[in-house]
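Good day; I would like, with your permission, to put a structural problem before you. What I wish to show you is a protein chain and, alongside it, a tokenised description of its three-dimensional fold. I would ask you to consider whether the tokens describe a fold that such a sequence might reasonably adopt. You will find the record immediately after this paragraph:
***
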Amino acid sequence: MIPADRFWAALEAGGVLVQARYLESAAFRLDPRHTLDLAAAIVEGMTGPASAALAWEDAEAAFARLDAPRVVCRSSAAMEDGRSAAFPGVFVSVLNLTSPGDLAVAIADCWRSVFSADALRYLLRVGSEPVDFSMAALLQRQVDAAWYGVYVSIDPLTGEPAPRADLSQAGPEALVGGGGATLRARRPSGGWTGVDEAMAASLEAVDRVARRLAAHLQSDVDLEFALPVAGGDPVILQCRPITHVTRGTGAATAGGIAGSPFVGRSCASGHTSGVAGHEIAVMEQVTTADYAVVFRSIGIVTERDASPLSHVAILCRELGIPFICGVEGARAGLLGRRVAMHGASGAIEILHDAELTPARPAAPAPPGELTISAVEFLLRLLAEGRPGQPPAAEADRIARRYARFLGQESVRVVGHCMSAPALERLGADLFGSGFSTALLFPNGPASSQPDDSRAQALRSGPVNDDTTELEIPNGSTGSDEHLLCIAFDKPSRATEVLVNLVHLQQEGALRLGDAVVISKDADGRAQIQETVDVTPGKAALIGGWLGMLAGIALGPLAIAGGVAAGALYGKLVDKGLADDWVKQMSEWLDAGRSALLLLVTVDDKAQVLRELGRYEGEVVSTDLPEPVRLELEQALRERGAGDAGG
């Protein structure tokens, strides 16, 4: 087993750790397009050599330990195989790995699959909370067998408490991947039907193991197994709770609607109607590679047979999408016609008696217009633009790339863009002296003058050379902005809190003027992540964090830029907290802890206190009004007392 710690280390090595933590906290609150965009940026960050090197280290050691000609790498995510969401076939598992190099590629693919478009679309559909992207990898010797099967302790199509099993000789992934079953067996009472005595003996052994696992999990179970020979002892490959059972419908039949020529086998119950080839997908076969089709369809019809115990069938049942397989002539007879699907019976009813139209998919619905704010687009242009190229051409290239990535034909830039000296200088450095925001955004830029008052206010805090006690800065900053410094009990906690405060800013609860994160590992080594004097080289190291800082001002689209956005934002920010004050704080902080220093304007006190009260912490310094400071200290103490008592 490769623990999830290595997955998080790969994210950190790729410079996208903070983006991943941000996505954990905000996945259900962002525009879904932005969620997918940010996830794609994380995948890109994990594709580099640093993450690959970690995967190679694990693969080389594991392959030597397993000492097998062929190895399997199976995903083992914190969110999958739960009672409400199985994530069936959503994450990557790879078979037939014959070298450490093959295994290293598979491990990296497994890690990246957490942020695949299929994984994020599934997560958004099922609403599985809390979100935990942790991914371990299970490495096994590959089992060579004559039969591979799936067992369920209850019939998921009918709710009958009678185990059933589908078996295939086509390979370990054929059945779960969407292929048909060679044998179908049931155990209504007293013994197995549909198979010979030797196979029945093997399935009885599977049933005994499954009952023990079901008792342990306190749930009906779905179990994958292999049989080296019929009549032999089974090899259990995987076990998970059954997530969705259709109860009280009786046995799923293929009798269908009287007179309907289109009848197949039920894989997922439900009733729906729509145009075949448009709302309802009609295909030769559906596999785990076709999940994008499943997510955008209200029903699935296939001509080939499939197993109701396959990953695709589980997915359809969880999403409430009827799935009927084995419908002969479905594409020729149904495409372009309005039909009704009766998932429980496996029948498809034609709703209009007009002549069959030629078999062709209906035209796709016109895409919706994609808009992006001028400020967000300018940040993306400066982060992704190629040096020396005409800025208008680069803007057009990036707009087309962004629209194409989100499945749209074009993008419209809306609103005004700030014309600030820092922006103009950065654009000139990148594209040449002819760069001008006024030429790119002729609708009239809004003027924005740099304001040093926030930085100056932070520098005014007194400093104490004694490293054992930290003097508390006092006095007002001269505005609604306040200095706040909180120490936390874990090295990563300050970053986690800052990410969630970014989200509160998007909701209008507060405004963040500046921020610094200080953390110390268990050995007392300090790391300071700040928005001060950031060169491109330094920004590349802490770009993930600074990319998140860009999101403070510009929202999740800026975050998707990753390291590039971080380097950009490092050039845009002015000097913030005084270096001596930050250094003193890092010396004062104990090993294994972290601190968050903020310049913040609180607009919704109750919401901010509620968020900060989720964490155990200590108010080290603040010039917040006394009543607010006391409320905050009380909230942090109550969290600490609750943790100690629980």
